[in-house]
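A protein record pairs a chain with a discrete description of its three-dimensional fold. The following entry can be read in just this way:
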Amino acid sequence: MSEYEKLGHMSIAQPKPNEASFYFPHHGVLKEESVSTKLRVVFDGSASSTSGFSLNDLQMVGPTIQPDLISILLRFRKGLYAISADIEKMYRQVLINPEQRQLQMILWRPDPTESIKQYNLNTVTYGTSSASFLAIRSLIQIGMENEISNPDIAKIIKNDFYVDDLLTSTDDLEKAKYLCNTLPKILATGCFALRKWISNEPEVLSGIKLSDKHPNVLNVGSNENIKTLGLMWSGKTDSLTFKISHSQQRKVTKRIILSETAQIFDPLGLLGACTISAKIVLQDLWREKLDWDESVSNALFERWSRFREQLPILNNLRVPRHAICKNPKRIEMHGFCKCLWSMYLHTFYRS
């Protein structure tokens, strides 16, 4: 919170009695595995006020204006040289209209011995319904403003960011180096700073400061507030891997099975041959017509337990990130499909 005040992301409020206002509840969240910020502050825009409504109830969310993650990842796997980076404190680089900051107020004191003070949050706040749209729209605006002067960089800004994560690739080494040298300068015009750079080719990052480089593993599509059994990319080996842990077995219910199945983050379907087992269990759960928190039958319990115990084996899986061979003369795609009583199967192979 002190950092918020130091950076000008919040300031002492001067509330006006006749103006609508909203106060955010807030608390800290400790994330031990985070490389940059282990303790983060979380603001609750969904908490109801005395009116019975929350700020999020009254906000327009805004449309989805970035490409979907699958499209971004497919392009990321296309080029020989892969590049990733992260926009530092993306949401907090976008200022809110001063006339609306009374809708983003908090109560805080830096020390228990001091009086509680009222603050305005001056920037887009993570936890509000419109936050993603406002931050992403600001990023895309930079791309639009550079379409004539630098069309290649503009295209990357508009198409190769997933919220604050850059995921792009190219077959041209010089183009990759140009991107790493030019993109930070262009984004800096909008107060966006890139950090945590990763590439499978060290020469690509030759112009990047050591302090701005990241350890060579990226958690793809991660959310700081959501635990996923994640898809990882190692720049050192240029391979996609999975980080899956075996949790302690609890009472097994339909709610728990659905929750744990949804946590397996596999946007490209690389684990489809494995996760289909969990989906078939879900089909059978619905046939049994169980309540959400009712224990499953012994047969389903055994099937789910075997599946869950074997999941960590997937940590040994290594999938090459680069999906296209170098300088191909001809590429052939071969597709196969099969229909079974419980599923449809289809797969494609490149040659």
In short: Residues 2-225 form one domain. Confidence is low (pLDDT under 50) at residues 224-228. The first strand starts at residue 10 and ends at 12. The chain is about 25% helix and 20% strand.
